[in-house]
Amino acid sequence: MSMDYMLSEEELMMVETARTIAAEKIKPIRRQYDEEEIFPWNIVKEFAQADLCGVYIPESYGGFGKGIMGLVLVVEELCKVDGGIALALASTALGALPILIAGTEEQKKKYLPNIASGKHLAAFGLTEASAGSDATAIMTTAIKDGDYYILNGTKHFITNGGEAQVYTVFAKTNPDKGARGISGFIIEKGTPGFEFGKKESKMGIRASATRELIFNNCKIHKDQLLGKEGHGLLVVQATLDKSRPGVAAQALGIAAGALEEAVIYARKRVQFNQPISSFQGIQHILADMATEVEAARALLYSCTRMIDSGKSKRTSKESAMSKYYCSEVAMRVTTNAVQVLGGYGYCKDYPVEKMMRDAKITTLYEGTSQIQKNEIALNLIKESAARNK
Amino acid sequence: MDKKLYKGVLIFAEQKNSNIEKISYELLNIGRQLADKLSADLSAVVLGKNIKNKSQELISRGCDKVYVYDNAVLENFQQDIYTNILSELVEKQKPEIFLIGATYTGCSFAPQLAAKLNTGLTAHVSSLEVDETTKNLKQIRPAFGKTLMVNIITPQHRPQISTVKSNIFKPAVIVENRKGEIIECTANYENILNRAKFVKFVKSEIIETDISDAEIVVAGGRGVGTAKGFELLKEFAALIGAKVGASRPPVDCGLIPHSYQIGQTGKSISPKIYIACAISGQIHHTIGIGNPDIIVAINKDPDCPMMQRATYALQVDMYEIIPAIMMEINKKNVLG
Amino acid sequence: MNIVVCIKQVPKSDNIQLDEQTGKIKRDGVEAVLNHCDEYAIEEAVRLKEKLPAKVIAVTMGPPSAQSILREAISRGADEGFLLSDKAFGGADVLATAYTLSQGIKTICSANIIICGKESSDGETSQVAPALAHFLNVACVPFVNKIDSIDSSAIKLERVFENGYAVIESTLPVLISVTKDINIPRIASLKGKMNAKKAEIKTLDISAINADENRTGLTGSPTRVANMFSAGNAHPVSCEKLTGDAKSMAKSLVEKLSAAGII
Fold this sequence. Notes:
The complex is a heterotrimer of chains A (about 400), B (about 325) and C (about 260).
Chain A: H1 9-26, H2 30-36, H3 41-49, H4 67-79, H5 87-102, H6 105-116, E1 122-125, E2 141-145, E3 148-159, E4 166-172, E5 182-188, E6 194-199, E7 210-221, E8 225-226, H7 232-268, E9 270-271, E10 274-275, H8 280-309, H9 316-345, H10 352-360, H11 369-387
Parallel strand pairs in A: 1-4
Antiparallel strand pairs in A: 2-3, 3-7, 4-5, 5-8, 6-7, 9-10
Helix pairs in contact in A: 1-4, 4-7, 4-8, 5-6, 5-7, 7-8, 7-9, 7-10, 8-9, 9-10, 9-11
Chain B: E1 9-13, E2 15-16, E3 19-20, H1 22-37, E4 42-48, H2 55-60, E5 65-70, H3 79-93, E6 97-101, H4 104-116, E7 121-125, E8 127-130, E9 137-142, E10 148-153, E11 160-164, E12 181-185, E13 196-203, H5 205-208, E14 216-220, H6 227-240, E15 243-246, H7 248-252, E16 273-277, H8 283-286, E17 294-299, H9 305-309, E18 312-315, H10 318-335
Parallel strand pairs in B: 1-4, 1-6, 4-5, 5-12, 6-11, 7-11, 14-15, 14-16, 16-17, 17-18
Antiparallel strand pairs in B: 2-3, 8-9, 9-10
Helix pairs in contact in B: 3-4, 6-10
Chain C: E1 2-7, E2 9-11, E3 32-34, H1 36-51, E4 55-61, H2 67-75, E5 80-84, H3 94-108, E6 113-117, H4 128-136, E7 139-150, E8 154-161, E9 164-171, E10 174-178, H5 190-198, E11 202-204, E12 224-230, E13 240-242, H6 246-259
Helix pairs in contact in C: 2-5, 3-4
């Protein structure tokens, strides 16, 4: 049982729906999808049919209108059972948020209803082989040619790459202007000159697809420009402020799932003629896991409520804190879950080794833990400077 | 209703492709026992096409009277026609007890027939006894509550109708030169009501993997977990000449089709050897496994009912032990 | 077109207990849920509604608490829910249940298709549907595992037998019971749940459905539970636990089975 966070009836409804899909549809296939790296289209259909794909999209665009909190609750619940399959939904949110944040009314009407209904998945394309933590180092260019932009370059490690229909991609429209020369575009799968590279074979989240996006003289109409030219990095930052809680929710879900497995196992496993849960050595590990999971949840939900309230213009620090803390907790808790299960935990018959593998990505993507700390510290110093001249 | 007007035991002799089905002989066995207790006649009714010549065997197996409806329209089961003909016969002959196999056919018409006759019906009965004074039939079937059996009676209504599970009673044996009466019956076939018409029959491959008569059955339960697990069981079964079945949980999860399900809401089997893999052994399941000579239980939980009931209990993960058993058998086959 | 789905509230399958006095299932304090097979009936009705203009009406007989399963039916896509509830309905067997349901359905609408789940998890097996067809005086096709085609006056379907299936053509109105192979039920959607929350569930008592009290409930039931007893093991057997690692267990099992002449 988690603490009472005063969730509304509709929020509880989303949790229950996600829980049912996780238990009935995902749990029976999670091991197979992980081992065989199967993209979960079957499960995406379930998400779509149950209206989960649009929980964070406003009702006016066909969603359920429950903000980032809706996204966080659904992702957490799904990730308690499987941290990889939920990414089809969570990474679509990352791809769709730039449209919600910076898209024109026409762009929103064109793309969001199909994403809300689950007909289309989306993906976010920023990272490149030589531009990970340093986004300003991207090499992909979008050079203006009349009413069009010509894109050239390769995006790396793109979650939902190849599977999604809608891509929000960032490229240099003015290579001389550095951070201010980057612009966002909405690009659809099937556009001539837009191809996909090989699918990465990963340590965890193996049911998610990670591919390169390859642009080779890809001609994009200027109507597909996302926000103003040169404002790309601003869109990226505003997106990450809202998407990092999604990663945090993924991490929290994985951690909560591992905690549950560890407690169940500890109660049932008998050594020295008693359940191992009777040993203080095990109890203290479980107590630490539970406390950290609950602290992570409290931090994440507070941050998410702050974002949805719309009272603060930026939530970079809080989003970074949530993502940093939840992902580090996920790594510790899943590692400890494997410890509690001992040799069994290390084997694939039990789900905790997979949870540990899945957890690791959350400390890496959408900014490593170190980048989150930079963000937190930078804002801390800025805030102090603003208060004390 | 005047209960005294009702006498004797009637069984429904089911046929497919103009052959009498085994369940019919099982009903003759228990029907004969009940009729003897009541000092009454045992009759059978059979509906089919070119079925008249099969009536003598029903008599040889214990029947006193056979009512035969032989007509092309009766070749395949049709709900309205069967229900109407049988209700007319029952109203005329007034049997005390009417036993029907709990087959797909029997379960289709029996409730409609009972409703039409305004009498009681007890479904999926696994044991029958009759009280000689009240002539009430004790219809025993498993009930929920894990280990409870429930005894149902129909005190004020006649006939007492039961559908009886297959493979519970042994088929009645043939007694040469046994005599009985064959009564050819007819109905107004031209004008009979027939709203749901039979079009054609399609044999199904999946359902053809019929486990009811298999000598060895390897079955998987909740703990199998994946469809791949059932592939492993199928491999194992192929090696030892067994057929594969399942308990209800994996069927509910969609890991294996319902036609493989064994138990109260699935098939009844009567194998000599039953190998239960990751099946806990609740009564809903075990009611359907008959009384095998040998039960092998493979389960991680040593305390589950199947492990208690097994001839050989192996407390181990099926994914570990089955490949090991297969390896042992292969070794043996090579050596010996 | 009106499609009526008959559903039932049952005790959650892992904690069913019998009242030894009455032989009926204890329902007090036990979590009650929608009967599993009925999910397939609702799903099939909703799929039909997606193909042709139709209204899906869920009907159940039960205590007032059974309105929760009607809401669940609505969350899964049904349009309306009706609860047949009256003290006089209690303790009904197959015959009385089918009679009561038929009176309710006749009151609610002129039904073109009536769909039941194959069986309920808590008692009678597959028996109510054909009995209900008798009282409604409609065609009946039990154990349907596929609907091939349907129009306003006829339906073509496939129904299961032991060794295959039969193709059946029926006139409407028709009552069918559906197997679990017919579809994979959807999980209730968020919008469906919102509809269910707002829906008004209509309750009909014995006078509302114009039923004869001598034909409902325990009074109208020809069958009685005489008694109950523990099933136990018909043939207790000596249980031998094989020990050791997987390899040695496998070895000793194979030895035993081959000694018994099986392998």
